[in-house]
Specification:
This protein is of the alpha/beta class and about 700 residues long. It contains 22 helices and 13 strands. Strands 5, 6, 7, 8, 9, 10, 11, 12 and 13 form a 9-stranded mixed β-sheet that branches. It has a two-stranded antiparallel sheet with strand order 1-2. Pfam families: Abhydrolase_1.
């Protein structure tokens, strides 16, 4: 039956979910009306920018956001807000204990100027360095970036220690012993906060130097969490009952009420000893002490944590009275009200806002922690395969150089030494630049500048344009090395590689002999004539190259995408007989497979060689030259590992026809296809040997 005056045709219009959400939001903001102050704004600004920095840097590292001025500029703008807000929150806490508001304002301006000057300098140095304008900017940024983080550490520590000093001298020293837990807790939190800054500085040496950007959300949200904990503790201490457990035995507290804008006594108390007699002073001396905060009688709302005390202190010698050593009569007036009004922490300002802030802190801490963990892996896109952090050393720091096609990740042992001879070492599949972790120091000790690039699709080497074909054809891989040399202004270098790396150095040495002073190649010569791609091969040979053909299929592509580390584990086991690699080595290498283009590049390499995928048209001329299988004219050292499987070892005679320059061939016992990782000394010696061949040419 319809209600009063409601016709029978009346239809109920139920509110939609959107209607309810909008109404709830408006209702929530209505409850918080008038509760917003600078402190709350700084808290939410800190929370917001931490989230924004984490998301932007994650999208950048994932390859969704391409490197550009606006990406770097946006990160720095958010970073400025992040730094200024956290320091503003700390200063706000300090201001609670400062009676002279002008001094608090002075501190705010001093800190703002210091941070502002540092912020400006970072804009002038960090952005050009990230845009790779010149090597000078990159080198200066490596130094200044750490210095400015150290400056922030000092400012943070100075502000926190000043707060500790004020708690000690303004509260505890004046009889408020219940603030001792706050004093101790803040000392501990200062140590934690400084430790976070040290970790942040240390993270600059992880990976390619940009990983530390991802640690900012974690570090600064933890700093914000520390501030929230301190604010909550202040409120709890202020609101706590001033019972005798915070004071010496025999202390009696008499409270007062506030009336007409000033404080009035309701009573007094006299401290006595255990025998019930009033305590006598030293030598009959009596001292009347009155401590007050200036201005508190002139306004109804205090401007800080204040204490209005009228105390009669009587003392006696311990040798005259055995039961007590001092006494006091105190009246603490309205401390809770003053603190509650002066402290703009969420708990005091509004339980509603504090609850929202606390919830936000929980979710933001979780989000930032997740983003920071993702940041430990430079890319998170192609595979869901989890990996344990590698326990092995890695080639770091890595740099980036832009060519017309790629942003190439590379390790450079001596980026500022333009006079040292250069050796470029190229890895294979499925491996990473860390393959050469034990080779690099051996060559550096001999005076070489060693450069180890990540091939396209590996590590953080990325395509500059999303429309560029993800081609791994031999011409493209070889040209990438020459383009990298051009970007680094390197005229000539020794090329050395294995597996895919052999293809790369073969192509670069054959087509650009004027850029190659010597070549080291496992399996000798792997430049392919496409006309022979479908040539009949013995069953045993085809069986050894089984994964070449698996990657021609959609199932092979999907399988690699779903488990890159599992595929690496299988290929390492099958292609190097008897190699007992460790889980840590596999974990370290697998980080390079998180590149979003890894699967496409890995499968395209085999699809192109077997004519199941076309090449990139921009390399067509080079590809045609390679079909002629050009000779290697530069001095060469070739290596055949005895325990390699895909390309069984030979004495080098079958490939001798492809070398017109000086050549030495070695068969390497007890070694599979990855010579640099399994026999690093042998590979380093081969580089030194080819250098001698070149010197006698």
């Amino acid at each position: 039956m319809a209600g009063f005056l409601i016709p029978e045709w009346y239809k109920v219009s139920a509110p939609s979910v959107d209607d309810l959400l909008i109404a709830s939001i408006i209702w929530g903001f209505s409850l918080a009306a008038g509760r917003v102050n600078p402190y709350i704004v700084m808290i939410w600004a800190e929370w917001t920018v931490c989230t924004a920095i984490g998301v932007i840097s994650w999208l950048f590292l994932k390859g969704i956001l391409l490197a550009s001025f606006w990406v770097f500029f946006s990160l720095l703008c958010l970073w400025v807000i992040q730094i200024q807000c956290i320091c503003g929150i700390i200063i706000n806490r300090i201001a609670l204990l400062m009676i002279d508001r002008r001094r608090a304002t002075k501190i705010k301006w001093i800190v703002a100027v210091i941070l502002g000057l540092v912020n400006i300098s970072v804009f002038c140095i960090w952005i050009p360095a990230r845009l790779q304008i010149s090597e000078t900017y990159i080198h200066v940024n490596e130094i200044w970036d750490r210095i400015e983080k150290g400056i922030f550490l000092i400012v943070d520590a100075a502000l926190n220690f000043y707060f500790i000093y004020l708690v000690r001298t303004r509260l505890i020293a004046n009889g408020l012993q219940k603030y001792t837990p706050l004093f101790r807790f803040n000392i501990f939190m200062v140590a934690v906060s400084m430790g976070l800054d040290v970790i942040l500085i240390g993270s600059m040496s992880i990976g390619n130097g940009t990983i530390y950007i991802q640690f900012h959300p974690l570090v600064y949200i933890l700093k914000l969490h520390i501030e929230m904990n301190i604010a909550e503790l202040i409120v709890k201490v202020v609101q706590a009952s001033s019972d005798n457990k915070y004071y010496a035995d025999g202390t009696e507290l008499q409270h007062s009420k506030r009336a007409r804008g000033f404080f009035q006594d309701e009573g007094s108390g006299v401290r006595t000893g255990a025998n019930g007699q009033p305590l006598d002073p030293f030598s009959g001396y009596r001292n009347n002490v009155e401590a007050s905060s200036d201005g508190c009688k002139k306004q109804t709302t205090a401007t800080g944590i204040t204490k209005i005390v009228q105390t009669k202190v009587t003392s006696r010698r311990r040798d005259e009275y055995g039961d007590e050593d001092n006494g006091s009569e105190s009246s603490t007036r309205n401390l809770k009200d003053a603190a509650s009004r002066a402290l703009p922490a969420p708990t005091v300002t509004s339980s509603l806002i504090y609850s929202a802030s606390a919830t936000a802190m929980f979710w933001q801490s979780s989000l930032s922690l997740g983003l920071a963990l993702i940041a430990a892996n430079p890319f998170c896109g192609a595979t869901p395969t989890a990996s344990h952090p590698p326990s092995l050393p890695t080639l770091a720091p890595v740099r980036h150089a832009n060519t017309s096609v790629l942003s190439i990740e590379y390790y450079d042992s001596a980026p500022h030494n333009s006079k040292a001879p250069v050796a470029i070492l190229v890895h294979g599949f499925p491996y990473s630049i860390d393959t050469y972790i034990d080779v690099v120091p051996k060559l550096v000790d001999q005076g070489y500048r060693v450069i180890v690039p990540s091939l396209r699709g590996y590590g953080t080497t990325t395509f500059l344009s999303p429309t560029t074909p993800r081609s791994a054809e031999q011409a493209a891989l070889g040209k990438d090395i020459i383009d990298l040399m051009d970007a680094l202004n390197i005229k000539k270098a020794i090329f050395a590689g294995y597996d895919w790396g052999t293809v790369v150095v073969n192509v670069a040495a054959a087509l650009w002999p004027d850029r190659c002073s010597g070549m080291v190649a496992a399996n000798s010569y792997l430049i392919q004539n496409r006309e022979t791609a479908w040539a009949i091969a013995p069953p045993d040979a085809l069986a050894l190259r089984w994964y070449f053909y698996v990657f021609l299929t959609p199932q092979g592509y999907s399988s690699l995408a779903s488990d890159t580390k599992g595929w690496a584990n299988t290929i390492w086991n099958k292609n190097s007989i008897g190699w007992n690699f460790t889980q840590a080595q596999l974990d370290a290498a697998s980080l390079a497979f998180l590149n979003p283009d890894y699967v496409a590049i890995a499968t395209n390499f085999y699809q192109n060689r077997l004519l199941y995928a076309p090449g990139d048209p921009q390399y067509a001329d080079l590809a045609n030259q390679l079909d002629k299988q050009p000779l290697i004219t530069v001095p060469s050292v070739t290596l055949d590992p005895i325990q390699a499987v895909v390309f069984p070892p030979t004495n080098g005679s079958a490939t001798a026809k492809f070398f017109s320059g000086p050549r030495v061939h070695h068969e390497i016992p007890d070694c599979g296809e990855n010579i640099p990782l399994q026999r690093p000394q042998v590979f380093a010696d081969a580089v030194l040997e080819v250098a001698k061949l070149a010197s006698h040419k």
